[in-house]
């Protein structure tokens, strides 16, 4: 049995992209207006997956059957010239410049969607900001619905362009206005659909209680949810697998970038407490008490014992001296009595 949640990261299979209805609707609304758009959120929030889904499904969602969509990961490209060159060549051109790109957009006769992932890497490298601003300016001058090859003589070229980028963290400050859509936690229904999409047909689904626990452990973040689901799924293969502890250990050892860990990561589970605090087998049963030596004499049930022990031998000695008319005999009897008391106190209580 293979764990289906072992494949993490960007979702490229359209059948496994579910949910994100609010964000998807907001993004498509901006694209319909041809406003350049930035998707943003912390690491593991699903920006790349949503961007990929837009590249795959925007034509159907926006009802543009001849849409020409391009997905580029800027973190893998060295500069803006290379980025322009890839798009120009895909449109049938050669020169990697923004001017030639505009000409090829007009000559293509088809609406074009450019999806840029890893925008934060290009900005950190020093060329991403200018690239976004130039492409955003082209998109703002776009003519939605135009399907010709060029504008009339003496007029600017006409084309239909949409631009959307995905950036980790917060959106950058740009001179060209971009609309923004933030990716927050998944809802319970979205998490349920996402988890179910990974399970094979006929395979038991996670219960509602299990989904709620996964939501609590992941704070609704897709990347955390996939990790937690991986460890929970392992219990189907190994019933004794301590999945909560393994999930917490993984996140503590490999925390995501720019995304705080869910609060539940720092809590302790009852099953962890029971197993960690359990004593070894040799300590499991309480040792039997050591046997006590029997008493030589049962102790009296009243409170006169100390008084009798102190005064008794003296009285016996006085009586002995009176009977024998000899005080040495009385002293001997008294001394013998005190010795008896001492011996009894020393050995009679053990």
Short description:
The chain has 350 residues and is of the alpha/beta class. It has helices at 21-32, 47-61, 80-90, 98-108, 119-125, 128-140, 188-198, 208-218, 222-237, 243-253, 270-277, 281-284, 305-324, 327-347; strands spanning 37-41, 68-73, 112-117, 161-168, 179-182.
Structure, explained:
This protein is α/β, with parallel strands linked by helices and 350 residues long. The protein folds into three domains: 20-182, 3-Layer(aba) Sandwich (Rossmann fold), CATH 3.40.50.300; 188-279, no CATH class; 305-347, no CATH class. The protein is 49% helix and 8% strand. Strands 2-3-4-1-5 form a five-stranded parallel sheet, with helices on both faces. Helix 3 (80-90) packs parallel to helix 4 (98-108). The longest helix is centred in the last third of the chain and has 21 residues, at 327-347. The radius of gyration is 42 Å and the shape is rod-shaped. 28% of the residues are buried. The model is unreliable at 149-155, 274-287 and 298-302 (pLDDT under 50).
Task: Give the topology.
Elements: H1 21-32, E1 37-41, H2 47-61, E2 68-73, H3 80-90, H4 98-108, E3 112-117, H5 119-125, H6 128-140, E4 161-168, E5 179-182, H7 188-198, H8 208-218, H9 222-237, H10 243-253, H11 270-277, H12 281-284, H13 305-324, H14 327-347
Parallel strand pairs: 1-4, 1-5, 2-3, 3-4
């Amino acid at each position: 049995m293979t764990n289906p949640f072992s494949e993490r990261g960007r979702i490229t299979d359209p059948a496994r992209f579910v949910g994100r209805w609010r964000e998807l609707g907001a993004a498509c609304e901006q694209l319909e207006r041809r406003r350049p758009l930035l998707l943003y959120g912390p690491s593991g929030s699903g920006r790349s997956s949503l961007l990929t889904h837009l590249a795959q499904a925007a034509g159907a969602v926006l009802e543009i059957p001849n849409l020409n969509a391009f997905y580029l990961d800027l973190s893998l490209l060295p500069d803006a010239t290379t980025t322009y060159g890839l798009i120009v060549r895909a449109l049938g051109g050669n020169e990697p410049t923004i001017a030639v790109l505009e000409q090829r957009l007009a000559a293509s006769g088809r609406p074009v969607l450019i999806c840029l992932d890893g925008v934060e890497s290009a900005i950190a490298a020093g060329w991403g900001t200018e690239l976004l601003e130039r492409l955003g300016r082209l998109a703002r001058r776009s003519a939605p619905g135009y399907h010709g090859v060029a504008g009339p003589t003496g007029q600017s070229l006409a084309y239909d362009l949409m631009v959307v980028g995905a950036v980790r963290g917060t959106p950058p400050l740009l001179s060209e206005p971009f609309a923004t859509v933030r990716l927050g936690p998944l809802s319970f229904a979205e998490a349920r659909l996402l988890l179910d999409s990974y399970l094979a047909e006929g395979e038991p689904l996670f219960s509602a209680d299990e989904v709620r626990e996964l939501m609590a452990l992941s704070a609704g973040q897709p990347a955390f949810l996939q990790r937690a689901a991986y460890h929970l799924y392992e219990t189907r293969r190994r019933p004794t697998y301590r999945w909560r502890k393994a999930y917490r250990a993984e996140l503590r050892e490999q925390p995501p970038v720019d995304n705080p860990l869910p609060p539940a990561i720092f809590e302790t589970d009852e099953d962890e407490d029971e197993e960690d605090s359990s004593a070894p087998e040799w300590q499991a049963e309480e040792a039997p008490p050591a046997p006590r030596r029997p008493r030589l004499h049962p102790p009296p049930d009243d409170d006169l014992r100390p008084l009798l022990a102190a005064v008794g031998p003296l009285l016996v000695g006085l009586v002995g001296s009176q009977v024998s008319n000899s005080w040495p005999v009385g002293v001997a009897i008294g001394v013998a009595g005190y010795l008896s008391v001492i011996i009894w106190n020393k050995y009679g209580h053990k």
